[in-house]
């Protein structure tokens, strides 16, 4: 590796503009003649709209237009869709209710838009919105899963009787039942996977501009995948044809999944920009983010694990109810099925697995992918069961895991996934060493003598990332292919532009992607520019999620790069009168091996563009594109161990130590990987200790601001001790697996395992607030 | 935010007369309660009268038997004041626990008391220390000042000018943070006067805002020690009950925080 090549902790190029406040986010963009949108949102969780009177608002100062849900239906704008078809166990398709971008008739969650005011200024739009009179007839609301599945519960959508969207299964039920029948021991748990609000730092925003003579739209939006947005907006929503719509996602301040989806506000902004003949801007505020960004998680699960007399796992049986909210968001159906149940084998050799997943509608904001998406829920089930089993069987939790680890690769699990490689013993051993596992009983005894409760919790996670081979996801119901595309352009002066369909919204692509070029050509990263986030510039792309940017996006760049190198070598060989096979690339020079003859990259590039002296028949220019479709998922895995001390008087848990040993395959930039792990751990710990979205019985979001929704802060978190054990991913030439979600996937079980160990009571729900922990210690007296 | 008219008077009298002229005027101090509420359009004062720049409202002075903190003094200035640290270290400590540095550099003692948030920290100190709230019209004893959730003895337009705190033989504060807002989920201030009287106030716990805790006062008067509270039973009746703390949990916190406050007081 060079100083800026693969494996170097290069300082992030993009940070200069971010930390000096010079990033360019959607809200920073101002177009000539721009108007401002303010949405009128339902205060009720479930209601019929009796009437909307916009006449007074229309007369207010600065108002350009007031548009309603009925108008969007009349204009034949398509309903929002869910792009992953799931088939129920009875063979029927999923039961999707209609979701118009603004409600014409019925509202199904607090915050759902029913109308929009467009005005000259933001404040004028807000003023006029207060003059819009909406008459509702309230309907009984279904605030959570238990309420949704009760016999006689209020029905949300006529398409989904009993509020059930699908009842899906995976695995061999009969074989799993048989394993339980012959089990020596059975461990079972009821688990609530708490609902989370993503809370990206930058709220969602959109600016739409319609060019009337060209019949062309431009949309600036906070998206993790602008090409997918364009595809969906044109193919399904009937707003513009694909070649008449440019989508730009400039700097985006975090997404965590919540900015994958196409939301009503973008659709309305586009549609409205044509209706009022002016650019329309909408910037959500934090309250709108709480009420309308897709939430994450929200499962109720019963899980059981069967063991033989040697403490080997013989079966796993899981029944999960998943809350998808009032409507089906873009990828919502896949999260509790193919991204969840397929990971239930964890790091273990489990011969029989059967899972049933029932997804339901409730009067809450839609739920979709959030950092980890399904895999944190799966890992939590498996790792809580393992820890519980160790306590019940009275064996050491690390030993029980080791006894059941998969050690032969590739390994086919009973739930679709074929793990390509890993070394689970290595990561658990590294974590145990880092935390001095052997010394824990002495530390625990010492803490006890000081009146403190101390516990240790292990979590060995695995995830499936880099999603995914297109053919595989297609056969499972996905509506899109999940490859990535790239173009490498060497300019005539030898500088390089890399166009990628991956989108960077905090991941550091502008640095890591350059490091690949530096590695291959030996040029400084300052000579390389990463271009992303604009459908007019980048050929195509599937975007960023599922820890896929390195494994899929960077591999696409590598493929394009290899084509560029091959052509450049031909040109250099021709110019140097050498054989193409003798050309080697070093420090930005094309050299004839074993001689002192060489040609610098700019000279090769210039030759390609002047085309005065190219090999016969060669096309001028030096730019190449590639599409890369992976052959398998990648499988990052690792071991987290957490040591906690609990104050019995208040129930407050404090970290003594938290160690992480991850296997991400090859690291492109260890510093950026470390940052990704820190962020993921913060969110996993946030779920375990702090965060939880709560709706009351009438469907009002109780935790609709930071005064009630506990975001993790620096002082809530320990100083993490990170390390890496490495097995190179055989599925891609770089050997990378992905690191973006691991922390969020593995951390929560480690924390809950540690606290339940400390207090000697295994019944504890997330978030494990001091109040809950205190009750778990003292009962409800 | 709705439109409003901003004023910057230079004296308390000028502020009071501006107040009477506005149709629905509001005083502004640190703005850390008022401005967020205005931004959310939950308050729409016709006039905003800034007290923060009035010189006579800022500063800390020793008095014969204690200290006087003027109303527009920030939490940061109280926390870092040598005068306060010497005379009433528990009060400086309390101020250092409010919010975060940004909040402490803007928020003021007068604003906090006028607002009387049921989970705010200062009310616990004012009540337990038997402080006196001075206004542009009168002096109000702590026992008469707090009137329940977000309400006080202040008349419309009345301005808090200062708070005077008598020194104590012992005083201590222990706060258990609300996980999200970091106000007090429950905070307890304990104080023992030179004459041996004990006053204990809890904030964040009661549905009616800051309150005294007679059971703990009695036990500590008999025996000033954390152990003296081991067998005290606090009733959960009338305590707040929400997703962050049930009423029985808060009842427990009153006792545990009182014990820790006594330990801190020495
Ligand atoms: C993020 C955050 C965290 C916080 N954390 C805490 C915490 O942990 N503990 C805590 O106790 N507080 C906390 N606060 C509250 C803060 O510390 C202030 O005390 C509080 O906002 C009020 O003080 P202010 O000076 O900002 O008043 P303002 O917001 O300016 O005014 C509040 C009210 O008091 C009135 N008022 C102000 N001064 C006077 C006066 N001299 N006479 C009469 N009326 C007056 C105003 O008209 C208004 O109605 C927090 C606030 C924020 C924003």
From TrEMBL, chain A:
It holds the Pfam family MoCoBD_2. InterPro entries: Ald_Oxase/Xan_DH_a/b, Ald_Oxase/Xan_DH_a/b_sf, Ald_Oxase/xanthine_DH-like, AldOxase/xan_DH_MoCoBD1, AldOxase/xan_DH_MoCoBD2, AldOxase/xan_DH_Mopterin-bd_sf. Residues 20-140 form the Aldehyde oxidase/xanthine dehydrogenase a/b hammerhead domain. One of its GO terms (molecular function) is oxidoreductase activity. SMART domains: Ald_Xan_dh_C (SM01008). It comes from the Bacteria. The keyword Oxidoreductase applies. Keywords: Molybdenum, Oxidoreductase. This is Carbon monoxide dehydrogenase. It comes from Bradyrhizobium retamae.
From TrEMBL, chain B:
Residues 1-170 form the FAD-binding PCMH-type domain. It comes from the Bacteria. InterPro entries: CO_DH_flav_C, CO_DH_flav_C_dom_sf, Diverse_Substr_Oxidored, FAD-bd_PCMH, FAD-bd_PCMH-like_sf, FAD-bd_PCMH_sub1, FAD-bd_PCMH_sub2, Mopterin_DH_FAD-bd. It comes from Bradyrhizobium retamae. GO terms for molecular function: FAD binding; oxidoreductase activity. Keywords: FAD, Flavoprotein, Oxidoreductase. This is Carbon monoxide dehydrogenase. It holds the Pfam family FAD_binding_5.
